[in-house]
Amino acid sequence: MTCEGAADAARLREAERITEALIFASAMPVSEAYIRDRIADGIDVRAMMLRLREDYAGRGVNLVQVDDAWAFRTAADLSFIIRRDEHEVRKLSRAALEVLSIVAYHQPVTRAEIEDIRGVQTSKGTLDVLMEAGWVRFRGRRRTPGRPVTLGTTRDFLDHFGLEELRDLPGLEELKGAGLLTGRIPANFAMPSPVMSDELTEDEDPITQLDLEELGLLAPTGAPD
Predict the structure, then answer these.
(1) For 125-140, how does the pLDDT look when each residue is reduced to its tens digit (9 = 90+)?
(2) Residue 105 · residue 175 · CB < 8 Å
């Protein structure tokens, strides 16, 4: 190996060590952009991450991709050994599972559209449970009369359900097998394709501070004394 090749290998190994430390120390998945800003220039971050993922395959801890970010997770076949002294998110009701499925596949979607798909009203409590779990979020406001809020899933949703990205969502047969779709499905029924990006669509406006106050997520900012 030439001196230049040895130097490149050393730079790459140091970048891998930094990356491992960043991911290990973070409670949340770490984005590739964040990693890129903290390692030497000229290193192909995606190629490095794929190599690291292969290195960790078969170990007790795996390196997994979550959207455009990465995290260490216990190997799936060893998860039964782990005992966590923490409160688990309460078991979701069937209504919450239905709403979560609709948001995942139809996002961006409004509450009225969810109710139209389900054929019944959706209680605020059902949406609150999904938001408290960190799986559903407010995306924006639809550019239609009334400016309804649009909903979408979060990175935590992908992480919890072991998905790298939304296109990894289960298909029709898998949903039927899980009992999330009944057997009385129209012959022309097809699974929708969710929006893959966090960016707003053409018919969505961003949520402002006034919107958050209206939704009860921020205390109104009164005039100074």
Answers:
(1) 899 999 998 999 999 9
(2) no
